[in-house]
Amino acid sequence: MEDLRESDRPIRVRWSVALLGVAVVLISGHAQTIFYDGLGVGAIRPIAILLIALGIVSGLLGLIVVAPLLRHPERTDSPRPIVLSALCGLGVVAAAALMTLPFAALVILVVVAATQLRFVARGAPVPSPASRLRLALPYSIAVLVILPVGVLHVLAGNPAGTWMIIVWAVIGGAAAVAFPVLCRREIPALAGPPRRTVCAGLLLVAIVGYGHWLTGLGLAGATTPGGTIVAIVAQLATVLALVIGAPAWKRATVGT
Fold first, then answer.
1. Whole-model pTM?
2. What is the pLDDT of residues 82-91, one digit of tens each?
3. Would you place residue 189 in the very low, low, confident or very high pLDDT band (cuts 50, 70, 90)?
4. How many angstroms separate the first and last alpha carbons of the chain?
5. Residue 254 within a domain
6. Distance, CA of 146 to CA of 239 (rounded, Å)
7. pLDDT for 4-46, tens place per residue?
8. Which parts pass through the membrane (predicted)?
9. Which residues contact 23 (CB under 8 A, 6 or more apart)?
10. Based on the structure, what is the number of domains in the chain?
11. pLDDT confidence band for 2 (50 / 70 / 90)
C-alpha cells in the first residue's frame, strides 16, 4: 500500500484549494454570462458553458487531490484533515455565493492578492530589477487594452454611469503605469521571483476586470459584448494566478 509522505500533505492541500478556487471563479463567474443575449451571443454563450464545465472538472480534481488525506485521517494526531476539509468546503460555497456579487468579488480578489503573493515561489532566485520591469510590462499593457473596451461598453449601454467609468479608467490606468515601476523597486510582494511577478500581474488584470462591474453596467441585460469580454479575461487571469501561485507538484507525490 502506498503511503502519503508527510511533506506532500501541504502541497495537496494548497493544490486542492487552488483547484476549488478555479471552480468557484469559473462557475460563479458565468452564472449570469449564460443569459447574455446581445451581440455575439452565438460565440459568448458556448464559451460560458465551456468555462462552467471546466470549472466543474476543476472542482472534481480539487476533491480528488485532497481525497488521500481524508481516507487516512488516523495517520495524523487529530482529525484535523476532516475538519479542515469541511471548513474549506464551507469556504468554497461561501466564496461561490459572494463571487456573484461585484463588490464582494473585488474584495475577495484584493484579499487573495494581499495574502498569496508572499507565499509564491518562496526562496526562489530574484531576477534583476530590469528583468522584473520587463516581466511586468505585458500585464500593464493588458490593463491598458482592457480599459478602452470597458469604457466603450459602458458608454454604449449605460451613459448615465459616465462618472464611475471615468473613475475606474483613471484608477486602472494609474495602476497599470505604477505596476512595472513597483515591480522594479524592492517591494517584497512584487520584487520577488518571476512566478511572483507573474501572479501579481495576473491579479492586477483580474482586479481591474472585476472592477468593471462597479461602473454601472453588469452583464445581465447588456447588449454589447465588451463587458462580457472583460469579465472573461478577468476570470481567466484569476484562474491562471491561482494555478501558477500553487506550489510545484513534485514528480513523486506519493512514497512507497
1. 0.79
2. 566 666 666 6
3. low
4. 7
5. no
6. 17
7. 555 577 778 778 888 888 888 888 776 666 666 777 777 888 8
8. 47-70, 82-98, 104-121, 133-156, 162-183, 195-214, 226-249
9. 55, 56, 58, 59, 62, 92
10. 1
11. very low
Average pLDDT on 108-129 reads 74
For 62, the domain range is 1-99
Tell whether 20 is covered by a domain: yes
User: CA 136, CA 179: separation in Å to the nearest integer?
Assistant: 7
Note whether residue 17 is domain-resident.
Answer: yes
CA dist., res. 23 & res. 78, Å (int) = 29
41: Cβ–Cβ under 8 A, 6 or more apart, which residues? none
Residue with cell 520591469: 133
Residue 180 lies in a domain: no
